[in-house]
Amino acid sequence: MMTFIGIILGIICVMTGYMLHGGSLHIFVAAWTEFIVIVGGAAGIFLGSNGVAVTKRAVAAVLDLLKPNPFESKEEYMKLLVMMYQLFSVARRDGLLGLEPHMEDPAKSTIISKNHTFVHHHHCAAFFCDTMKVVISGGVAPHDLCEMMEIDIDSARAEGHIIPEAISAAADAMPAVGIVACVLGVIVVMGQIGGEAAALGHSIAVALVGTFLGIFVSYIVVTPVAKSLAAKHRTEESYIVAMKHALFSFARGESPITCVEFARRQIDPSIRPGFSEMEKALKAAKAS
């Protein structure tokens, strides 16, 4: 949501400054054809460069920015730590086979189903449950398991970069598209030479709007969206890496509290729960 608030603030400030200088918004209405050239050209570049599948994913990802990012929340990390502690405790008490019902259907698990963010994020749930299934099946050394998890994370990282990089590339192309729109406007102006000076001035202003819009849309609208998507992916990756450290510790046979402590140390310090906070939450979960 803050992405769009920032974009709106940028638009308001730029246009307010323009109007305070005596500029009129009427010229932007008159230059509606420039919008067609720039928006249509950018859409064509994006679709042609990335295909339909990536375009659909990009639209969904941009709309998803309207929702709060759960992976920036201390509360969500606390839920993750509590959930993993409870699952590791089940394994210590009932053996690894006691975890099978929870891993086979996480949405129906009495422990995992309480963590809605985890359950509804496909990659998080798949990463954790698939890794636990490997541990339960046995025969895989902890360091080999760690390598498997690294491969999974690397694959997710590569996939996560596709949309931000595609949108960033479109942002880089926008000024050039704006220049194209301006040149087309200049061509129109050249055909009007010999006419009234006021009409020529108006046509030149319309042409220059193309250059302005290309730069404006690139840096004030599209680039912030690309940066926000990249930042969101980094928070999702950090959440998964925290799980990786806990799972690696669990595979080595360490106690549940040690496993979740490894995960806690991975969390960004700005949202990391303190050890006392975590201990209190674990005790409350155990008592409930």
How do you describe this structure in short?
The protein is mostly helical and 288 residues long. 81% of the residues lie in helices and 0% in strands.
Number of strands: 0
Question: Mean of residue pLDDT?
Answer: 90
- Structural class, by secondary structure, is mainly alpha
Number of domains: 1
Percentage of residues assigned to helices: over 70%
Low-confidence stretches: none
The arrangement of helices and strands along the chain is HHHHHHHHHHH
The percent range for strand residues is: under 5%
Indicate the radius of gyration in whole angstroms: 26 Å
Shape: elongated
* End-to-end gap: 35 Å
Major β-sheet, in short? none
How many helices in DSSP terms?
Answer: 11
Please tell me about this protein's structure.
This protein has 288 residues and is mostly helical. The chain has one domain. 81% of the residues lie in helices and 0% in strands. The radius of gyration is 26 Å and the shape is elongated. It starts with a helix and ends with a helix. The relative contact order is 0.15.
